[in-house]
Amino acid sequence: MRVTVIGSSGFLGRTLTASLHRDGAHVTAISSGTPQGIDRTTGLLPHDFSIAAGTEAVVYLAQSPHYRQVPDMAWHLLNVNVVSAVRAANAARAAGVKRFIYTSTGSVYAPSFAPLAETADVRRDRWYPLSKLHAEEALAQFQNDLQVCLVRPFGIYGPGQTGMLVSNLAASIERCNDITLGRHPHNRDEADGLKISLCYVDDAAAVIAELLQVPKLPLHLNLAGPRAISVREIAQSLAAGLGLPARLKEMDQAREFDLIADTTQLSHTVNVNYTDFQVGLGRTIDELRRQRPQAA
Length: 296
Hints:
Elements: E1 2-6, H1 11-22, E2 26-30, E3 57-60, H2 74-94, E4 99-103, H3 127-139, E5 147-153, E6 156-157, H4 165-174, E7 178-183, E8 195-196, E9 199-200, H5 201-211, E10 220-223, E11 229-230, H6 231-242, E12 247-254, H7 264-269, H8 277-291
Parallel strand pairs: 1-2, 1-3, 3-4, 4-5, 5-10, 6-9, 7-12
Antiparallel strand pairs: 8-11
Helix pairs in contact: 1-5, 2-3, 4-6, 6-8
């Protein structure tokens, strides 16, 4: 199979590209560091961007590094998430590509404490999910020419990741910072903090790789692990693995939502043997230890 991966140097992109290579796929890896990649300054693919003839699938994983710098850098966010994605889909259409997979986000859903199915209400009051929804709506217009699958990942984590929930919690533990735990608004006795459907990076890559082979793709698809895990459990497991205390602080105020995926459609679409949370976290902790400065 010939696959083009746009965003191949990112956290998920590296894992997916390596997995596809091992499976014998012919992968064209495109990143901001390659000639046909997204320009780091503008967030745009080249005007003459093209997909090689014979390519069967395109996976769009590119993300703007400025997604937290809004509204100042919202233009860059929209260029990467929307404009360049549409440009890539149009190039795929012109090359006769059969399927186009776009990584959106589980954060598109409106705040809720219930499991979120693909049909749940969405939110447009934050720049990042708004940009993803704009992309989803634009890319859906290509359905007459391509099989489009808009994948909504929840809480991808794993070794080498930085700046996200698990790595940030690990950093807080190592720095002896407080980790705040919001209460459930309908159960004041529950103060475990956000519950999120984490997904180990190798499993996320395996799902996307399998989607390349599925005969009929759903338009929207949640990508998440099999169970929701609280910030309390994540922090306690990290602390035990690092051999450090976790400074957990229960807050009086209630948290606004959980981020729990309904994975019914996912289980009907692909067959993935998920990595146990403690195993995935253990691998993540091992990498954190390797990155620690060695004592003199």
